[in-house]
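User: Okay, second chain of the day. Same drill as before: sequence in, structure tokens out.
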Amino acid sequence: MKMKTSIFCVLLLLFSVSSAEDVNLRVKGATHIATTDENFICATLDWWPSNKCDYDQCPWGEAGIMNLDLFNNILINAVKAFNPLRIRLGGSLEDQIIYQFGEQQECSLMEKQSDGLFGFSKGCLTRKRWDEVNDFLNKTGVKFTFGLNALNGKENSIEDKENWVGDWDPTNALSLMEYSISKGYKIDSYELGNELCSGGVAAKINSVQYAKDITQLRSLVNLLYRNANTKPKVLGPAGFYDKEWFDSFLDNVGHGVVDGVTHHIYNLGPGNDKDLINKVQDPFYLSKIAQTFKDVSESVKVFTPRAGAWVGESGGAFNSGGKNVSNTFVNGFWYLDQLGMTATFDHKVYCRQALAGGNYAMLNTTTFIPNPDYYGALLWHRLMGRNVLSVSHEGSSLLRAYAHCSKKGHGITVLLINMSNSTTFRVSLVNEMHPDKERGSSETDTMREEYHLTPNDGNIQSEVVLLNGTPLKLTQSLHIPEMNPMLVDPSSTVKVKPNSIVFVHSKSFRAPACS
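Assistant: Same drill. Structure tokens below.
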């Protein structure tokens, strides 16, 4: 009798610890609901010096652009693997940077300054460093966005010290552009200013004035870059969304001035929040930001439909991210969910803060060895196509799902994120156009490709991620490892284990939107 009781208790314990749930994931493949840019994945580089510190830690090291080792083979290979990666150089100190071109001959280093913006003095980008940056960009094939200083020529308002007034002076920017053109440097886009809209962060510009300034930038670009094929895009306003400010800016800027409407997202709060690890695993919390994505997208469509909405910077937790969270596997629940969500709300590009630097870096700040989110971004870049499909299921909210037309061939690619620590989801792909045919497969024996990402040793705060059970580590030649799929019978369900992220490429899924 005691033995029977013990067996029952063990079985009860196992059932309570681990369970399974069947889920029908319905995919609407007749039409797409949104489109992204071909290079949706973007990463940022920043200006922060090594003495940028928060919460008694200084996590930037030598990763700011003035100190970054642009000759490091791991860094070079990590960027090359995207072929190409979109990179945005900008950030909080952007509006304090002058460029050593034209009449600007003196070039002083940025230093701590108590009354300076963000606690730093103005700094200078030397001609030599600009050459080194562009050599790196050319070598790695990057699509490059450069953030210009928008405060040149402006002064503090007497009534409000944070409010900057006056017209933008483009002289220094003009000199940088002319030099870049003479050297054949490829700039994909110019962005004007960083976080200057609405309330600003440390400084702000009136929406009507900013519209006037960015119109001047557009005129400058049109004047200097005559070839339409190589003409850089113009982006802005690069700040936090406020409906009144954004609508006023877009209403005053006119059609054809901006190519991308950029906004920033730090929806997880401060990096030292003890609840950060719970936020990134809470689907209700993660969904709170969806309204912002929807509102930005709708504003763009109303005022400047030719342009697209971009997330120009997003690190999740502000002030350099959260130590042992933002750089570990668990952060992928937030990051990949953000990619899926913004794509459904018709955002064209998503720039992750940062490629290197801070706790939220995709690469280790000192070694440049990839953190887990780097591999999630690389898989997205290689597998998820431009056309976004509608998906739905009636299962647990802990299972997030997104679908796109496949980037590499026929069919669709589905992203599945399991935030449960105890439930395995057995997912069937159901084609809404052919509901009588389970999982939407055609009459072929094409194997389904699956990429299962799990944390090392089951520890969601691990900096090592496994692909189909094998740790992703650099090769002996310091290159990114091959990322081969697991081949699965298309008639079977997709088994999404607890605390895992899965990309599924179903070649045989027939979707007219993907023809």
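The chain has eleven helices and 24 strands.

User: Thanks, on to the next one.
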